[in-house]
Amino acid sequence: MGVHRFDLPDVQRRVLFSALSAVGCFGVLPAVWAQGAYPNRPLRVIVPQPPGGGFDFVARALAERLSKSLGQSVVVENKSGSGTLVGTDAAAKADPDGYALLLGSVSNIALNMGLYDKLSYDSLRDFEPVGLAVSYSYTLMARKDLPLNSLKDVVAYAKANPGKLSYASAGNGSGQHVLAAALWHLAGVNLVHVPYRGAQAAYQDLLGGRVDLFFDLSSTARVQVNAGTVKALAVSGAERNPMHPDVSTITESGVAQLDLESWFGYFVPKKTPLDVQERLRTELAKVIAQADLQDNFRKAGGKPLSLSAEQTRALVRRDVERWTKLVRDIGIKAE
């Protein structure tokens, strides 16, 4: 018993000393641990469109470089269905741990908010932008034999001849449809909407003279514009597009105060830890600033973006709020 009475306080002292040492280091160790803990396994980027399109192109260009920056694999996962709903919903419901990212665009982040009455996610409530990398404007094209040479001419003719002009889209609720419908709504004219299943079919009828007008991404439209098979009447960006420097913006035409650029970037679930968000935001910013990536975007017809976190949030919020209201005011619904 005497031995136990003598040793027990000594044991307690050693245990207490160890505990106090751990507490003393508490402010240092977790910080060191956190720096090395994320990421410790592969990340995935959910792309709500099939492989091969604009969503996929941007997602893979960023993923390849972000993987090198983070020292972990960044896997692109195409999850298409119901336009962009299936993939975007999956990202909204993913664990907010920084290992599931979303490729977000005006389409699934802004336009969907107005196109669907009961959307399974809320873009501003459920997502936080990590960074926007590139944007693409749209070009309004006319069939080459249309005897109208500017957007102002089109609107003047449409006012005098309601329902006589037609415009194509890649489907109800597509970016091409929403932009055109918003333009005609703001200009106060009535044109006939002809929805197609994809842009390729719309081009066939535009080139064949069976439809009068078509809005498409400037990067795709430039092939036909440069070939002289269509006429470029206006671009949708806030500024003129370098690919079509002689083509006025919608706002410059004087028929409506309207601009739309389809931006693309990475988003994470809103509840992702702030330190993880900042790590992703810092590394992605380095990627977006790479000269070779920006050159690739320019060659593909895009405009590289360089925005702060505050500017990014403001742009996303502006477009979500503006386009949700405008789409609902016009009454556009997705298919």
Descriptive notes:
This protein is an alpha/beta fold. The chain has two domains: 164 residues, D-Maltodextrin-Binding Protein, domain 2 (3-Layer(aba) Sandwich), CATH 3.40.190.150; 117 residues, Periplasmic binding protein-like II (D-Maltodextrin-Binding Protein, domain 2, 3-Layer(aba) Sandwich). The protein has 14 helices and ten strands. Strands 1, 2, 3, 4, 5, 6, 7, 8, 9 and 10 form a ten-stranded mixed sheet that branches. Strand 1, helix 3 and strand 2 form a beta-alpha-beta unit. Helix 5 runs parallel beside helix 14. The N terminus is likely disordered.
Question: What's this model, at a glance?
Answer:
The chain has 335 residues and is α/β, with parallel strands linked by helices.
Give short descriptive properties of this protein.
335 residues; alpha/beta; D-Maltodextrin-Binding Protein, domain 2; 2 domains; ten-stranded mixed sheet; 10 strands; 19% strand; globular; disordered N terminus
